[in-house]
Amino acid sequence: MSRPVAQELQRAARHLLQQPLTCAELNPEEFTLIRRHEHELDRLFTQRLGYRMQLTADTARLYKSTVLPHRPVLAAPINSKRALSQRECVLLSLVLAAVASGPRIISLRDLIDLVRTASVDAEVSISDEPMDRRAMIMALKWMIAAGLLTELHEQIDRYEQDSSADAILEVFPERVALLPLPKLSRAESVSDLFSDSGQSAPLRQTLRAYLAENPVMYREDVSDYEWSEMRRRLGEDVATLDELFGLRVEVRAEGIAAIDPMGKLSDQLFPTTGTVGHAALLLIEEVLKMPDASCSIDVVDACLEKLAKTYQRIWAKSFLEDVRSLRLQVIDLLDNMRLCESSGNAIRLLPAAARFRVTAETDSMSDAADTTSARRSSALSTQSRKSTQKKTAKKKSKSSGDNDSNGNGQQSLW
What we know:
By secondary structure, the chain is of the alpha+beta class. Helix content is 43%, strand content 15%. It is built from 17 helices and 16 strands. The protein has helices at 3-18, 28-36, 38-49, 86-99, 108-121, 130-146, 158-161, 173-176, 182-186, 190-194, 203-213, 224-232, 234-245, 274-288, 297-310, 317-321, 323-336; strands at 21-23, 52-55, 59-63, 75-76, 79-83, 105-107, 149-153, 168-171, 217-218, 248-252, 255-259, 294-296, 340-343, 346-349, 359-362, 372-375. The strands form six sheets. The protein has a three-stranded antiparallel β-sheet, covered by helices on one side. It is globular, with a radius of gyration of 23 Å. The chain starts with a helix and ends in a 39-residue tail after the last strand.
């Protein structure tokens, strides 16, 4: 395979990993590449990860049913830093169920009537209050962003302020029908839907998919046999993830991470901008100083209150006035990135959090006024639906295992 062809193939594979539903009019260049390399992509995804690809005239769908990601959430269409709320996800599910069989052209009012009918069957109550109207608008905007719905006349935003507002919409039922995983049709309950995820696929495919879809695979995430099998055939997995997605694999005693050198194969980055991202980095530094890198929620609140006073000029005012809300979002971010785990009234940082420890470095080439600088280590990010990212500008880790490894060593993690 020539280098240009391999690059096209990798670009198409990376895109499908991020956007398992790809529409021709929204991503014309990527869709052209997917169609051009359809058979090779289908073969690679099927053999290496246990995924299945379906291609129609204007839509590509990658069914990622091998493994359930650590953070199976949908990003809000107008703000990728926020996930859809539970209520928004419920209304999105009801809308999809209501339009799956058509009609193709429908008014907003008729669509809402169909959703209300579906909600009765699902035993879900929907009110006409502004909160539910906003959630409905967000669900419809997610569908528009995904290529499942378009506005033909008027806009749906008016419904948020006016419950009598109407609009003409075009739905693409054939694309809606591509959304559910095959397992959904076989599940008789919610527990069936989440049980034995990935068990129908060979172990090698399951482990590779887990590594591709999650920020990090910790030793404690898998059984002794699975860890042994992962380490035994790690060279093959390293080659697969590099060939398909351009990922670099780091191996440590505590786990394995797939790092994206380009920092783009992700639906959520870390470190990230904004108050929550800044507070998360600073909280990591504080908790790492504590015994076992763990503390109670009360200590977290105290740390954030102290940090809020220090950075009150640059942090969002809403968080300065509500530290509890900031704490919830910070812990949620760190948990999504597999950097911490919370249980009850305490949190514990996981080994990969040590990547973000601040260290002081003396640079003999710098100006006298800037001889010491704080350097942050590389960034992990969730892939799509989770990948990992690495920014390697002048990092110096305090942990003993800072060098990359392909599995020959057992250094301490990050």
